[in-house]
Amino acid sequence: MELSVTTADLPGPRPGHLVRPAREKGPLPGVILIQEIWGVDGHIQDVSARLATAGYAVLAPALFARGGSIPPALSPDRVERVKRFLDTIPPQAWAGLPDAARRAELLQPLAERERAPLDETLAAIFPPDRGPQLAGWTRDLAAIARWLRLSPHCQGRRVGAVGFCMGGALAAQLAAEDPELAAAVVFYGAPPPADRLPRIACPVQAHFGAEDPRLVAQLPAFEQGMRAAGKALELFVYPGAPHAFFNDTRRSFHLEASRQAWARTLGFLSDRLGPG
């Protein structure tokens, strides 16, 4: 169901997509499902349904709708157009998208009428500095987790977080922001800064593709920092898998890595959010 989360800690109502088992009416453990850069699209809604059938009340908040509505540049149809464009350029070119001049170069082969809306949406999805945006969304997610715990869907039951790509980074940040979070699952998201690791209050499970060199290069320091801070970390790197290997709507999908990561995710959530 589509709903709106309203609390004093949010800068306006926040739309969200809530899914729970159809035949289970009582309170359940909760999962905050955190979107990729594409928003709460069909893939995230599908993952929400998969998690719900495992016995959870799953809430996927629309991060782009900060204040209540999604900006026109980030509307679903505009984001889908960007996805189609990105499929036409090599993945390594994505690193240049926060730069306006590089975007103009990549968009140059397109018809003139297509460039402006694509450029506007790309600039919104790939800002030059995402730090302040991530910090604001992390605070929002902590408020949303508090709301879910108090809702009839959970009523104080344990709440965890699962995030993908940008959402994976936010799941790890939320683990450092929300002392009541019971579990965090990170799918190919950037690890938190080293000074945030001691604040992580729950076990973390993390999944990365071996063919994702930018993030894989950060993992030794992440693992060492978590160990030094006395934090629980399960870290998995999947041979042959690229970034975004779990998204079965994208060309990056990797079947074997997805199968293993999903089984591990469900086991981890069951251990951390189940009874006892």
Written overview of the protein:
With 276 residues, the protein is of the alpha/beta class. It folds into two domains: 2-68 and 133-273, 3-Layer(aba) Sandwich (Rossmann fold), CATH 3.40.50; 72-125, no CATH class. Helix content is 40%, strand content 17%. The chain contains nine helices and eight strands. The protein has helices spanning 42-53, 76-86, 100-107, 112-125, 131-150, 166-177, 213-216, 219-228, 255-273; strands spanning 2-5, 14-19, 30-34, 57-61, 159-164, 184-187, 204-211, 233-242. Strands 1-2-4-3-5-6-7-8 form an eight-stranded mixed β-sheet, sandwiched between helices. Helix 2 (76-86) crosses helix 4 (112-125), helix 3 runs antiparallel to helix 4 (112-125) and helix 5 (131-150) crosses helix 6 (166-177). The radius of gyration is 18 Å and the shape is globular. The model has no long low-confidence stretch (mean pLDDT 94).
* Oligomeric state of shown chains: single chain
And the CATH topology of the largest domain?
Rossmann fold
| Integer-rounded radius of gyration | 18 Å
| Gap between N and C termini | 29 Å
In terms of per-residue confidence, which ranges show pLDDT below 50 for 5 or more consecutive residues? none
Order of secondary-structure elements:
EEEHEHHHHEHEEHHEH
The amount of helix comes to 25-40%
Query: Given this structure, which CATH class of the largest domain is correct?
Result: Alpha Beta
Question: What would you call the structural class?
Answer: alpha/beta
CATH architecture of the largest domain: 3-Layer(aba) Sandwich
In total, how many beta strands?
8
Q: Globular, elongated, flat, extended or rod-shaped: what is the shape?
A: globular
What's the rounded overall pLDDT mean? 94
Count of discrete structural domains = 2
CATH homolog superfamily of the largest domain:
Alpha/Beta hydrolase fold, catalytic domain
